[in-house]
# Entry
Amino acid sequence: MSDDDIDENAPIFAIAVAAELSGMHPQTLRQYDRLGLVVPNRTQGGSRRYSLRHVEQLREVARMSGEGIGLPAITRILELEDRVRELHGRVQELETRVRDELERRPGARVFAAGATGSVVSMRHGTRVRRATELVVWRPRRQLSPPAQESDAEE
# Structure
């Protein structure tokens, strides 16, 4: 089993195990749950179940708290990190869809923005009505991130 096979969101750890893994007291985890800082899943009986991601968040909370960051700020940071993770997943999903479309129709226009801002699929050979739709993307040969500038060049 590789690391890719592990579901980091699977609620598998009881509070005592999560506390041990995060280096915190179980009462601290209960307090963080009440504050909405790190909220574990619950079993049908109401017991807390923490995932690997929760344990990592708890470690991050301990690190930030040790650096003097207050709990309200830590809560906001964790919310923003969750949002970034969510958006990153969405971008990956969209890149996969575009790649699949490119494989199906190489060189074709993939989509356009409709008058309301909605995404409009374009069939090969279809012309865009300039008054109502605007082509916003034309495929390139390869989808790859831009090269990062290295520190050696400075």
Remarks:
- Residues 106-140 form one domain.
- The beta strands are 41-42, 48-49, 111-113, 119-121, 134-135.
- The longest strand covers residues 111-113.
- The radius of gyration is 23 Å.
